[in-house]
């Protein structure tokens, strides 16, 4: 997957969390009717899975690094050093509104605290060769990250039972693959890392930085002077999924006309059978009305 070696899209998580925070300041009589709890919940879950994936990568890299005498470093993976702790601490204040139990919320809060502490410890290794660090310190950091991987695996099991299983589909499948990946990391396994420091990553179908929500409704693809009927299948801040049998050119701009007359400028991104992925020319805001259009 092309996105696996990029960092988490923090502005998406931040906008969802900060938007919820601003609304929470309203008088209680006004309620939180405009709090998009579906989007906020799924943003938190995708952030957690994406960060847990990075935990597995860092831990497996450290496992391999402590066992090799080859002069390679983990500096090329410095982009994994993102820290969503403060943003997620804010977002998780709305656990009850998102339908999360206190136990799941507590596990997620501890997860982000642990990862933040781990990032501080591993950051110097992202800037040095193995020979530039005391061997004992490297081993201690590796041991710390194996513990983080083990705790992340346990937290994933809890979140899977209560939250991810409700979302279903390939996200459920990906969480199972991620669970196995974290188990390898926690056990000290390094078989995925070759002599050059490259990692064979698990095949995750839906692991992404931003949530993709299922939606339904008719739409029309406007392509030049053609009007092509299609149906909406999902939406993220980055693009739309549609069901369409017609061939769409990869480089030509097009527009999607929704059943309410709204017009969205897009470009063709990918096709899998009749399912087509379209990328927005301008990203949506997390508060966009499309994220409230749920399947019937």
Molecular structure report:
The protein is α+β, with helices and mostly antiparallel strands and 296 residues long. It has two domains: 10-186, no CATH class; 213-292, predicted glycosyltransferase like domains (Thrombin, subunit H, Beta Barrel). It is 42% helix and 15% strand. It has helices spanning 10-24, 37-65, 85-91, 102-122, 135-167, 169-186, and strands at residues 213-214, 218-223, 226-235, 239-243, 254-258, 263-272, 275-280. The protein has a six-stranded antiparallel beta barrel with strand order 2-3-4-7-6-5. The protein is globular and about 65 Å long.
Q: Poorly predicted ranges (pLDDT <50, ≥5 residues)?
A: 1-32
User: How much helix, percentage-wise, in residues?
Assistant: 40-55%
Kindly name the structural category. Answer: alpha+beta
- What is the typical, i.e. mean, pLDDT? 80
* Largest beta sheet: strand ordering: 2-3-4-7-6-5
Q: N-to-C SSE series?
A: HHHHHHEEEEEEE
Radius of gyration: 21 Å
- Beta-strand residue fraction: 5-15%
Q: What gross morphology would you assign?
A: globular
Q: TL;DR of this structure?
A:
This protein has helices at residues 10-24, 37-65, 85-91, 102-122, 135-167, 169-186; strands spanning 213-214, 218-223, 226-235, 239-243, 254-258, 263-272, 275-280. The chain is of the alpha+beta class and 296 residues long. The chain has two domains: 10-186, no CATH class; 213-292, predicted glycosyltransferase like domains (Thrombin, subunit H, Beta Barrel), CATH 2.40.10.220.
